[in-house]
Design a protein that fits this description.
Residues 286-316 are annotated as: Disordered. By secondary structure, the protein is mainly alpha-helical. The protein has helices at residues 2-16, 31-44, 48-52, 65-81, 85-91, 97-108, 114-126, 134-151, 159-179, 186-193, 201-225, 270-273, 277-287. It has three domains: 2-108, no CATH class; 114-217, no CATH class; 227-317, no CATH class. Helix 1 (2-16) packs parallel to helix 4 (65-81), helix 4 packs parallel to helix 6 and helix 7 runs antiparallel to helix 8.
Length: 322
């Protein structure tokens, strides 16, 4: 029986000794994220007892000692291989996986690093979407919050106190998330804030993400459906009319319920959502006498307004009119 266990252990050791178990190696500045990754991996392998010390070494004369020694060496190698060369040299001579873990913790862990917590809190408040995909913005916030939780674990014991504190933290993070959203999501932000009780950050993200996806679909959809009716202003001579291009005067029956103008809907109304940079620049150039307005382009009052912060609408999508 002992030989069988030894054979299995040796096989595992040979295949796993050189594994890199964390996405980033410990370099002395990333202890919190490194330790979390290591903890998850080793627990998943069923070997955390070697790190925690619960799996004590049997007597050397015991038949099980060889198995313990091999498994300990395997876990120890996981830890050392997840460090940079300079950091690994500090802990290489230690005897057990527990010794390595304890030494790393004592060297790099600070139970409550006020300066680090301050920096993380400032970072959470300063994080903004700034035109990035919503998922990327949300991911940055989640990473910051997880770092804060690691450095400031909840130590309350009363169930009511724990629930109250969890609610307070959830609301703070909801405010952080909503405050950093781009302006084109103002409406859904207001909808979230009017809910009672306030939703969790994850629930709020789902609502905001659904609205962001809807806006993307609405802005892209009309261009695909009406591709025969759109053209860049530079593609045709100024005197070419819609009738010569085969565009029917009666084809487009859309009417905006916001500005009451024709040939667009409320979802793409410039007046409601904001004028893009290219449109503002075009009007300024016209005032200065630079590049007159082509006769076949829509006047200002009937051009749909699109939120520039969400989707820039290039001049290639100007709607042709008779």
């Amino acid at each position: 029986m002992g030989d069988s266990k030894t054979t299995v252990s040796a096989t595992v050791t040979q295949s796993d000794m050189s594994l890199h178990i964390t996405p980033d190696k410990l370099d002395g500045s990333n202890y919190s994220s490194w330790s979390q990754s290591v903890h998850i991996y080793i627990i998943g392998k069923g070997k955390w007892s070697y790190v925690s010390g619960k799996k004590m070494a049997p007597a050397q004369a015991d038949a099980l000692y060889a198995i313990w020694e091999e498994d300990n060496a395997m876990v120890q190698s996981w830890l050392l291989n997840s460090m940079t060369k300079d950091v690994r040299a500090i802990f290489l001579k230690l005897s057990t996986a527990k010794d390595v873990w304890d030494a790393v913790t004592q060297t790099y862990s600070i139970e409550k690093d006020a300066s680090k917590l301050y920096e993380l809190r400032r970072q959470a408040l300063a994080t903004r979407q700034n035109g990035e995909p919503l998922s990327a913005y949300y991911g940055k916030l989640q990473q910051t919050w997880q770092e804060i939780d690691f450095l400031r674990p909840r130590k309350l014991k009363c169930a009511d106190d724990i629930a109250t504190r969890e609610t307070e933290i959830s609301e703070e993070r909801l405010y952080d998330f909503l405050a950093g959203l781009d302006p084109h999501l103002d409406r859904v932000r207001s909808q979230v804030l009017t809910q009672t009780p306030l939703p969790s950050v994850r629930a709020a993200y789902a609502l905001v993400n659904a609205e962001a996806s809807r806006q993307t679909i609405m802005l892209v959809g009309p261009q695909v459906e009406g591709s025969a009716m759109v053209a860049a202003p530079s593609q045709f001579p100024r005197g070419v009319s819609n009738s010569r291009l085969g565009v029917s005067k009666t084809t487009d029956t859309r009417k905006c319920t916001y500005c009451d103008k024709d040939k667009h809907t409320k979802d793409t109304c410039f007046k409601l959502h904001g004028y893009p940079d290219w449109w503002v620049q075009k009007k300024e150039n016209q005032k200065k006498g630079i590049g007159g307005s082509p006769a076949h382009l829509t006047p200002t009052s009937s051009i749909p307004r699109v939120d520039q912060s969400a989707h820039s609408v290039p001049p290639t999508t100007l709607l042709l009119l008779p």
